[in-house]
Each structure stands twice: as structure tokens, then as C-alpha cells.
């Protein structure tokens, strides 16, 4: 069967997804997102939708990009060294949201499409994406809801995908130098073309479309909880782990920087207030300690 999905239909979906997510987030925050459209000298461009000092979000960004280049960066060809150096085209939506309230978790979501081309050879295409939750104070019902939502986005495409993508997420969003997870995980997949193009695109759409239902109920539950300086201080400390992962391990960040991407858009994921401390440890039995004992270790939530 001939595939009906094309680069233009995938791009149209991604642009619509960005708009739908921003509209939902603006409905919760009450402050409009700024719009910053940009072009990339080597080819392509994008639109970054940004909020800073909002009513709910201390900082957040929902970015769409459609970029291309002549030489595929090493980070994008890590699993397929034979395609390194090919011409390439990439498009996607990526978001990170940092609520002000320490009881409301940070969240990340990304969906993307890649094509690597070479004269006289069939194009190599793949999809990637996922979403993961990074709480500062853990709530079992939030983790269960998020993981159940992730499972439901993948269910139409085979029961084996959720366990595989859940484990992939656990292993990917892991700070090796700290020997701890970044958060409670979710799902992650990359280099995915195991299904035909149309079915792979449908899987990516399901993940993208599932984000609002996975995250907004959690945010609604936590955004107005009372908190004090202790909670804000711990939130800033744990945000340091987010920065460490993104700058040391994240393939998306590395790809963006290696490909000459727009630095402001690549680093829109950085939290606005962060703290580091030397060899700090939470007090035994405290809510802060529970994050380490009950939430960061990998586990089956559903």
C-alpha cells in the first residue's frame, strides 16, 4: 500500500499540535505565550512559543522547528553510523514546562520526524518522541495517571510497545554521574520505523495528542497548593538535575548545538531559578527524602 503521509502533512500536524497545546496552557495560566519565529541560515526555521513569569508557569516553551542541512550531525546518526554525513531534514514539536509551584511537576514532551537523504539511495526516515514527568514532591496518583496515559497512547499499536518505551525512558532520562533518575519517567522512543510510514506517523500523533490529557489534570491538582520557602528551595535544588541532564546527556540538545541550531530555542528548556549545593542530603523521613526513596527508583507504576 502506498503511504499517504508526506513531509507536508506531518509538518501541518506538528504546527497544529503546537497551537493546540499552547491554547490549552494559556487557558490554565491566563497569560499569553510570546511568539518568536526564526530562520536558520543553513535551511529552515521554526516558531518558539514562550512564557516567562506567568501565573502558573515560571518559565515554559513549546517549540516547532523544521530544519535541514547538508551533513547529518553525529548525535543524530549515533545508532546508524552508515548514514552519517547525509543530507537531512527534521521537524518536530518540543516542550518543557516549569511551573512555579514546587508541588506541580516539570514536564517534557517531544515528537519529531527525521529524513536522511543521499543521491541514488532510498531516503531513511524515522520518528521519535515521548513524554516524561519530573516531580519535586511525589504523589502516587500523579505518577499512575501519567503512566496510564502514556500506555493508552501506545495501546492501539501493540501491547509490547509500552513496556519497551517505558524502559527506554527510564534508561534514557538517567543521570549516570548521580546514579539517579531525572524524574518518574514516562515513555521515550527514537529511530522508530518498525511500522509502515502511515502507521508510524499515527503512533507519533497519538503520543502528541495524548500530552494534554496526561499532564493538565496533574497540573490542575497541584498548581494552587500552598507552599513556602522550604519547598521552593528544594525545587531549585532539584532543577539542577534537570540542567545537568540536558547539557550533558540529552541527544536533542546535542543535536541542536551540533547542527548549528538556534541557541535560544534549544535552551528554552532551562529552568529560570536553579541552585546547587555541595553534598547535600535530605533529612530522613522528610517529604524531600521520599522523592529519592519512593519515586526516583525505577518501578512499575501501572
UniProtKB/TrEMBL annotation:
A divalent metal cation binds at residues 98, 108, 147, 177. SUPFAM superfamilies: Coproporphyrinogen III oxidase. Keywords: Cytoplasm, Heme biosynthesis, Metal-binding, Oxidoreductase, Porphyrin biosynthesis. It catalyses: coproporphyrinogen III + O2 + 2 H(+) = protoporphyrinogen IX + 2 CO2 + 2 H2O. Pathway: Porphyrin-containing compound metabolism; protoporphyrin-IX biosynthesis; protoporphyrinogen-IX from coproporphyrinogen-III (O2 route): step 1/1. InterPro entries: Coprogen_oxidase_aer, Coprogen_oxidase_aer_sf, Coprogen_oxidase_CS. The keyword Glycosyltransferase does not apply. Its EC number is 1.3.3.3. Substrate binds at residues 94, 110-112, 260-262. The active site is at 108 (proton donor). It is found in: Cytoplasm. The keyword Metal-binding applies. Its main location: cytoplasm. Its cofactor is a divalent metal cation. It comes from the Bacteria. The record marks 177 as: Important for dimerization. Residues 242-277 are annotated as: Important for dimerization. Involved in the heme biosynthesis. Catalyzes the aerobic oxidative decarboxylation of propionate groups of rings A and B of coproporphyrinogen-III to yield the vinyl groups in protoporphyrinogen-IX. Belongs to the aerobic coproporphyrinogen-III oxidase family. This is Oxygen-dependent coproporphyrinogen-III oxidase. The lineage of its organism: Bacteria, Pseudomonadati, Pseudomonadota, Betaproteobacteria, Burkholderiales.
